[in-house]
Amino acid sequence: MQFGVGFFPVLGPAEKGASDWYDESLVLAVLADELGYEHVQMVEHYFSAYGGYSPDPVTFLTAVAARTSRIRVVTGAVVPAFTHPVKLAGKLAMLDNLSHGRLDAGFGRAFLPEEFAAFGVPMSASRIRFAEGIEACRLLWTQEDVSWSGDWGSFGPVTMLPRPYQQPHPPIFVASTTSAQSCADAGRAGHHLQVVPTVTSRENLQEMLAAYREARAAAGHRGPGRVQIKYTCYLAEDATVALTAARRWELNYIDKMATAIASWATVRSADYPGYEHLVDKVRGYDFDRSCADNKVLAGDPAQVRDQLTAIADWFGPDVSVCLQVNPGCTPLPDAERALRLFAEQVAPHFTGETTHALAGR
Asked: What's the CATH number where 204 sits?
């Protein structure tokens, strides 16, 4: 099991300025590099306090790459529906070069109706632009004189510069929320996977991962593929302190998400089956049940170790866990302490390495 650090800003200007949040997040990214965490990941969202401080994860990850030397930088995820594939392939290739081959390129479909409306993209185009965007980037990274005709229109022949640092291209990750079919498609294509346990059941996530692994193996791809699972994490020496913070910031997270998805109460899309129930699911959030179901990592080191042991049993010991330690307005010293405590007292139980050994890799 590997561990990384994820950033999903669930706050707005009334709570903390964007530059302050970026500064604090960069401090945490540098610390994660020093402590031996495997990756730093950033989301793409727009407009609202639910992720709106991150309209371009590539910009943030470029700043991370400039300040670090070892840790991988992960888009979690960029949205092909909102960016022309030539622009997207070029931005990611630049980051791969600036990081000297530390990029993992994660792609997602997006799901907030207001974002699609702002870009003038119908939600019915998200699936095809997602698939086309990934394939167009792959072709632009690996071939010369590329021509393309699809939903984004036509381009070419063009030869992308710069070429990616990693050959033939950066590892490609596909973000999936609830669909076993999407996971199977990713496995069949030989891509890697990003999932979030918050909005689905343990049983459904197990089915998603099984579909991914089976399809990948059946297609003859080498290795099991890499799976990143994202969790908020509240860790302190005193379990009461950690759980108090967890309750506060998880409810803030839910409040921000409920506002961002409110339009799903009236929006319907055949490409997003079941999303009309999303508002009710979020409104019915139960913090204590979420902790008991290991959808949130919270407590002292022993408690979080127990949670991760269950997660490894459920989803496989080879998954990579992405930890968000500064959701909402978590004070920077608390987030730094959680990162250090996790590296010292939790991670070694799953990696078999001390903090010193991890940092020296």
From this structure: 3.20.20.30
